[in-house]
Design goal:
436 residues, 13 helices, alpha/beta, globular, four-stranded mixed beta sheet, five-stranded antiparallel beta sheet
Length: 436
Amino acid sequence: MSTIPSGTRDPGPGTAEYEVPAAPVRHSRRSEAQLRHRPAELAGPYRELPDRRVHELFEERAARHPDAVAVVSADGQRTYGEINSRANRIGRALLAHGLRPEGVVAVLLDRNLDWPAAVLGILKAGGACLPIGPHLPVGQVRMMLNRADYSLLLGPDSVAAAYAEDHADTDLGVPVAAGRPAALHFTSGSSGESKGTVGEHAGFANHVLAKVDDLGLGAADVVAQTAPPCRAGSLWQLMSPLLAGGQTLLVGPETVRDVPRFVDTIEHGRVSVMQVSPSYLESMLTELARRPRELPHLRRVMVSGEPLRTDLVRRWFAALPSVPLVNSFGLPETSGDTHHEILYDVPAGHWVPLGRPIANVRVYVVDERLAPVPLGAPGELVFSGVCVGRGYVNDPERTRAAFTEDPYRPGERLYRGGDRGRRLPDGKLELLGTAR
């Protein structure tokens, strides 16, 4: 059995264990001097986070406009009040069935109208959400469940049973600390073996609120929820519009696989913000050249998952010059995206830079001793701040290798995953290679 080192939170009995080493890291005088002269280049802007969790911020929205439409799918729609009510009933059902603080609840649901209520219900009850989805191979699902040491599982039958138990639909009011786990996401590393990353509520809230701020989300926005549940991007796509009073459009996998149908869905669904990979963006451009659409409501397109080439940016602006692209980069270990580079025109060079970090995130470019390298020199990208998660669930060896203490800010975590990059003269970051 692994142990919880000093300086980390005890998850309590009956839950999965997480190990975050707290051993100090030595660093050189050179690194200290360089950091003193370059602090602004290494950090995103500071933003004070509200002392409330994502589900509590959603509850506030639901109380203000319960009858506003929150989530839309091909099967219908749900209001803020309906989703909040159903989430409260699911949360109480989980507690009635023995969910303990920080217990892991696996969600084996399609991205239908019950999925948002299931995710919120877990968070409201103080559990950690493991979104899986029902379409993964059986062996992979079994591995995730065994590694996560899950407590309960929510599938279609169990959600229906939770509603049938007729629990109260008022907010639960369960205290949930910012440092508790919010979600687990499994990802394959360079070895091909899956790792379950544990993200905390503070990092989750910081990521979602960065999307609200940097994308300028408001009540008039519709965000396309396209990522599979098992992907880290699925939860920000679900929750960011709901914290801004907007709408989430659930786009099913069969629609995403059919590019013409997807473009039609974006147009008819009045989508204003969506996220795609560069490869998918290229397919969209081919479809728009074949059958042009104006997409009048679209105002931001996030591009992530692969390096973004400037020639693709040039093609995009030739087709839709008034719609900025947002080159985003992030990792499950850092609660999702850590960089948003908003493009209004074609940048110079072959590849688009990553831009500066989002709020409350610090990124260092360092050598093997964690000393900062000179400006423009290649080095390892390491991440610090509220974004850094607890580590890998029930995997102390990998956790010790990748998660440590920030040598420049004692008491804060640092994540090093082997990605490489360099700091450009304008303070932006160029990605040189990933370890995944």
